[in-house]
Specification:
Elements: H1 2-16, H2 21-28, H3 32-44, E1 49-52, E2 58-61, H4 74-78, H5 86-91, H6 95-108, H7 111-119, H8 140-150, E3 152-158, E4 164-166, E5 168-174, E6 177-184, E7 187-192, E8 196-205, H9 214-223
Antiparallel strand pairs: 1-2, 3-4, 3-8, 5-6, 6-7
Amino acid sequence: MRAGRLVDMLLTLQRRGRLTAAELAAELEVSPRTILRDVDALSSAGVPIYAVQGVGGGIELVDRFRTQLTAFTADEAAALFLAGQPLVAQQLGLGAAAGAARRKLLDALPDALRGSAEAIDGWFVHDPLGRGATPLPYGELRRLAKAIERTVEVEISLADQPPMAMRPLVVVLEAGSWQLIVLSDAGPEIVCIDSLRGLRITRTAFTRPAGFDPGRWWHEARAALPAEGP
């Protein structure tokens, strides 16, 4: 999972110091492009990591950043980047774990950076659902996440429709609307699951497309849609 890779990245940088994206990519067995995306994600989450450009540059943690990352529980690691998304973390059943992960990260920051990070709570609130959104039934999102992790089919009931077998790849929260990228016989496609009523995890495994990049696919699929009118 991505959360585990991010923890591995931090541990590697703590142990070895500054490394290039190519060196980190080789260490973690991913592409340099993936490493740069992960650095952006860590930085956005408040982790003091930065990249130095040019000859002799690389990726490193700020001086004195030390934390017991190995003390993270599995749920805390998974919730690491939901720390700023309390409503989503709660839907996934990871609200408490996200709070614990956030506290551990704050404890690891230098005093000056910790004050800046904590100050954000005083002026910024993110509501990813919005007033018009309908929350998914409690626990169903987490069960869906488990099915995606295991790469197994699910039977989904939407509104009053009969259950439908789907091969789930990615969950997307788009401006308060829940979307599911599923693998059909023709390839990935988008299904709106705002009206989700029930979900059953099956034992039928499927193969995830090789090299599938969820973020890139999503943005390309959305860009291909006709522009909305005024």
